[in-house]
Design goal:
The protein contains eleven helices and no strands. It is mainly alpha-helical.
């Protein structure tokens, strides 16, 4: 029960920061609760994302309602809304395909390690990749939602799919990629979190249904993820705009690598 609550709280807070909530959950599971089955840990992390999915759904409810309205009257929607719908649809399909291949690959090779240091080292290396992309991101503020094109959708779909690997921050990768594509920061943040909604829901339905047992522990973790996600999303999204977390992620990743050899 304590484990479920702790994981839910961590997911609720870490999801809004570009620090890989999945990576942090994996480190906690490995180092504090003694789990080494990476596939099982990824399934737990994906399930916990449902809590922050619901929190984001509440927070972005007006925009989500607008998107659904425009989907059902697509022909009448203006050009900007059509661009947004097309972007979300294509990127989500690609993300689902890439993520499915990664998770199936982990299951196929029965990815269970013999020591916690191996997982810690792997996550540390992936965190360094996330940090590098955030530190090197470009901010040129000259493209918006109305300028989205097919290559934006493909790029975002691929990088979000790779975020299935613990240590690669979904929000960090997607925002950094959009900034590299010269999309302004305000739209980059909004698009990143709108893009998370269908992939989290679809991923749990298609890939994680076997984990849905709704035991007391799972309900506790889901409730904690939702509650703390809802309480922190507004303030942490503002904080993420002001601070480049790349250096923090770099230091965190470096510490994980060092710790794996101790």
């Amino acid at each position: 029960m304590i484990e479920s609550f702790v994981l839910g709280v961590v997911q609720g807070i870490a999801e809004w920061l570009p620090v890989s909530s999945e990576g942090i959950i994996t480190l906690i599971e490995v180092n504090f609760f003694g789990k080494v089955n990476v596939v099982q840990i990824v399934q737990i992390a994906l399930f916990l994302h449902l809590g922050t999915f619901l929190a984001a759904l509440v927070y972005f409810r007006k925009k989500v309602i607008d998107i659904f309205k425009n989907i059902f009257q697509y022909k009448k929607a203006d050009k900007k809304e059509k661009k947004l719908i097309n972007f979300l649809f294509i990127a989500t399909v690609i993300s689902g395909g890439v993520g499915l291949l990664i998770l199936k690959g982990l299951k196929h090779f029965k990815f269970v390690v013999s020591s916690t240091s191996e997982i810690t080292l792997g996550i540390g290396l992936l965190l360094l990749i996330t940090a590098f992309l955030q530190i090197k991101k470009k901010q040129e503020d000259n493209r918006g939602v109305e300028d989205l094109n097919l290559w934006d959708s493909i790029s975002l779909g691929v990088v979000q799919g790779f975020a299935a690997l613990p240590g690669l921050s979904r929000s960090g990768l997607t925002v950094s990629t959009l900034l590299f594509r010269k999309v302004n920061e305000k739209d980059s943040l909004k698009l990143s979190f709108l893009l998370s909604l269908p992939i989290v829901l679809g991923g749990n339905i298609l890939l994680n249904s076997e984990y849905f047992n709704f035991s007391l522990d799972s309900l506790i973790s889901l409730s904690a993820s939702f509650l703390f996600g809802l309480l922190t999303i507004h303030y942490l999204l503002k904080l993420a705009k002001k601070i480049n977390f790349g250096w923090f992620v770099f230091a965190f990743g470096a510490l994980m690598i060092i710790a794996s050899f101790i």
